[in-house]
Amino acid sequence: MERIPILKMGKFLLVTIQVDLYDRLALTLEEDLIQMVHKTGARGVLIDISALSIVDSFMGKIIGNIAAMSSILDAETVVVGMQPAVAITLIELGLPLPGVYTALNVERGMALLTARMPDETEDEDVDDD
Question: Is pTM, for the whole model, over 0.85?
Answer without folding.
Answer: yes
